[in-house]
Amino acid sequence: MAERLFPALAAAPAKNAISFPEHALDYTELAAAAGALARELKAAAPGRVALWATPSIHTSVAVVAALIAGVPAVPVNPKIGERELGHIVSDSEPALVLTEPGAKLPDALAALPRKEVELTGVPGELPEEPDEEAPALIVYTSGTTGPPKGVVLPRRAISSTLDALEDAWQWTADDVLVHGLPLFHVHGLILGILGPLRRGGSVRHLGKFSVEAAAKELAGGATMMFGVPTMYHRIAGEVSENPALAKAFGSARLLVSGSAALPVHDHQRITAATGQEVVERYGMSETLMNTSVRADGERRPGTVGVPLRGVEARLVDEAGAEIEGSDGETVGEIQVRGRNLFTEYLNRPDATAEVFVDGWFRTGDMAVREPDGYYRIVGRKATDLIKSGGYKIGAGEIENALLEHPGVAEAAVTGEPDEDLGERIVAWIVPAGERPAEQDLVDHVARLLTPHKRPRVVRFLAALPRNDMGKVMKRALDG
Q1: Which of 51, 54, 80, 372 has the most CB atoms less than 10 A away?
Q2: What's 432's DSSP letter?
Q3: Phi, then psi, of 163 in degrees rounded to 5
Q4: pLDDT of residue 2
Q5: What Pfam families has UniProt attached to this entry (predicted)?
Q6: Cα–Cα distance measured from residue 71 to residue 59, given in angstroms and rounded to the nearest whole number
Q7: Where exactly does CATH 3.30.300.30 map onto the chain?
């Protein structure tokens, strides 16, 4: 018999499994509700199901049920646009859609048979689960270079990542996780909902994130929080002014940031106010988690730690040769391999073949490796590696430097063509109050880093374009 993804559902410990502001389920109740839906799905053998992934307990029950039944689920962002949704539905061909009761669906999903998820069910034996290579979830990428691609995640990718995080973060059944992340993405759904359930712990979802709501849960027994940099930026701004908030966040066992780089300045502000050092990790849809700062290791701002248990990582140069040594300066592309990897891009054998080389996945992320093995991400190969004046420059370190200037609230750095330099560095700035002088920002970066890393152009914006996970959409910045 194949390994169960959630052994605690059968053991049914006497504790809350999942809670949202409006509903909560203990393990016995979750096993009954998810088990009943799983038996129904297994009997219907629908092939694939779409999941209208609202931030609700119904979404959580639905994904657990689909995993128990061995039916691949396709989480769909409730804010998705018509064209992108049409592509996902035609590409994945779900036989039905799982929703919370009364959800209003867009036309492409409304045309499918619909099953509303109930929070009750008659207890019964849980279905036998498929083997570890069976598809579990199909998560669609953001589609920055064309239509979104369906990342087929097998069951072993989920179990291996969550078990590696158990090791790295000393994650146990006693932990209570709080977060307010979306549930259509790896971070919020796999790490934030499935992670606690695999450990036999508890998760408290805020429905919608607020600093006050997260602090209330941490003060009331929650031990861990997951968030994205935009959330931690808000926390950094509020804990320095509010001792009660600072105390609540200071009481956490672990604060984890992911989905994008957390600026060093925000790390420092949170630590100064709370005593907490935020842990960063690095992953993506195709690989789930690759590296992390360990709970028992040095929490070094600006780094994403070391490879997780079972994950191999390396840096390669532009010719594809492995970069030997760890000098903290040489930039290369991260390649990884391990049981955490996806199987394929759905219906895209060409795209799948393109991203693998001798079993290694080409992440497209550029990084340096410190002498002690810590990785520091400098940006995406396509958008964040700037080749200027013969130098390879990562956008991330310039962004961190800019954020240390008191006149800068937000910063993004891109490159644009330059006849002399090849590319010139462009800084996109959201001012903190009165607009700072451009030359002051240029000199600030040159002083903190080196002169060849200074911006040649500074452009001011009211806000940076971001996606639902808080990542800056640099392709939307007109160069």
Answers
A1: 51
A2: S
A3: -75, -35
A4: 77
A5: AMP-binding, AMP-binding_C
A6: 15
A7: 385-476
